[in-house]
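Ligand: glycinamide ribonucleotide. Inputs:
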Amino acid sequence: MGETIHIGAFISGGGTNLQAIIDSCENGNIDGKMAFVGCDKPGARGLERAEKNNIPSFVVDYSSIIKTYKKDPDQIDLPDDFDLDEAISKQSFFPEGYDPEKIKAFLITRTAAEAGLLKEMKAYPYDLIVLAGFMRNMTPYFIDRINTDPDNPRIMNIHPAILPSFPGVDGYGDTFRYGSKVGGCTVHFIDYGEDSGPIIGQRCFPIEPDDTLDSIKKKGLEKEWELYPSCIQLFAEGRLETVKETFTLDNGNTYQRAIVKIK
Ligand code: GAR
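Predicted complex:
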C-alpha cells in the first residue's frame, strides 16, 4: 500500500486530465487527495471541476502581469529572494544567442506570477505538483522552491507527444503535421528546459491514413487519462527514483542525463 499524498494541480484550460486525477483519487487508483487547483487564466473551464469537487482553487492572471511589464517594467513586484542572473544561467528554454531582453522579460514576468502562485500554495500541504494542461513554463525560481531536494523532483507535467519529439505548445498538431505514424503522450518531471525533464511514462497510439488532427487529439487524450494517474500512483508508492547516468559513446564522448528508474 502506498501513502496518501497531497496533490496540487495547475491548469490553463478544460481540465480533463485534472478530472482523471480527481476521479482516480476518488476510486482508489491514486492513493492521494487533491490539495488545490491553481490556474493562470481567470474563467478557465477546469476551475469548475475544482469547485464541483470541493477542491480549493486560485488564479494568478499571467496575462495581466505580462501586459503590465510591457507598459512599465518598474511596476512588476519581484520576490526579495529572486536573482535574475542566477535564473538566466540556470534556464535552458532559450537557445544560445537568443535576445537577452526577451529572456529577461520572460524570467521577470513568469517569476512575478510564480511568486503569486507560491503565496497561494502556502495555505495547503502538498507532496506533488502536477501540471495538467498548464500552458506556462515554470522558471528556475519556482522549480527550486518546490524541488528542495534536487534528487527527488516533485513537479510532473503531461505533454501531448512522445518526447523528446515535438516539445512546445502543440504536441498533437506538430505530430500530425509532421506525418508521424504513431502519436503519444509523455509524463515527465520538469527541469529548467522546455519539456526536457526525466521521463516517467509514455503511451502511444497508431496514426491511420484517415486520422485527422481532431481524431489524434481524441486518441491521445484517452491515453493521457490513463497514463497520468498511473505515473502519479508510482510517485505515491515511492517507486520513482531519479538518477544521473553517464554513458560513454562509441566515439569516446560522454552523454549525461537524469533518468527515472521505476522500482
Ligand atoms: C492535454 O492534451 C495536455 O497534454 C496538453 O494540454 C491538454 C490539456 O487538456 N498540455 C500541454 O500541451 C502542455 N504543454 P485538459 O485541460 O483537458 O487536461
